[in-house]
Amino acid sequence: MAKGRVEISPESCKSCSYCVMSCPKKVLAIGDEVNSKGYPFVVAKNPDDCIGCAMCGNICPESAIEVWRG
Ligand code: SF4
Ligand code: SF4
Q1: Distance 28 CA to ligand 1 centre (A)
Q2: What pLDDT score does 1 carry?
Q3: Using 50, 70 and 90 to split pLDDT, how confident is the model at 70?
Q4: How far apart, in Å, do the first and last CA atoms of the chain sit?
Q5: How far apart are CA 9 and CA 3, in angstroms?
Q6: What is the pTM of this model?
Q7: Which ligand is located closest to the Cα atom of residue 51?
Q8: Which atom of ligand 2 is nearest to 30's Cα?
Q9: How far apart are CA 56 and CA 27, in angstroms?
Q10: Got the DSSP string for the chain?
Q11: I need a surface site. Which of 23, 36, 43, 69 has the fewest CB within 10 A?
């Protein structure tokens, strides 16, 4: 059971990977699809491992990630 949950806004993502590198649980990855600006956006590939620490949301320069706990 996941302790946290992330919501990613594909259109806001610039594919910088900061969130992928910051996640201690390796939840996030750059996905295979691209947004309307041509950036491959981040997806939660291991959502069940999320602990809701918010490292990803805090580091994202585009505010593309919302984190929910519980
Ligand atoms: S909230 Fe923490 S564990 Fe969950 S995806 Fe973001 S960095 Fe990873
Ligand atoms: S930090 Fe934000 S902009 Fe960068 S890859 Fe992650 S979601 Fe996309």
Answers
A1: 8
A2: 65
A3: confident
A4: 10
A5: 20
A6: 0.95
A7: 1
A8: 5
A9: 10
A10: --SEEEEE-GGG-----HHHHH-TT--EEEEEEE-TTSPEEEEESSGGG-----HHHHH-TT--EEEEE-
A11: 36
Asked if residues 57 and 65 have their Cβ atoms less than 8 Å apart, the reply is yes
Going from the Cα of 58 to the center of ligand 1, the distance in angstroms, rounded, reads: 10
Measured from the Cβ of residue 56, the count of other Cβ atoms closer than 10 Å reads 27
70 CA distance to ligand 2 middle (Å): 23
| pLDDT tens, residue by residue, 21-31 | 999 999 999 99
Q: Closest Cα partner for 52 from 30, 29, 25, 31?
A: 25
- Ligand 1 pocket, Cβ-based, cut-off 6 angstroms: 4, 6, 22-23, 25, 27-28, 50-56, 67
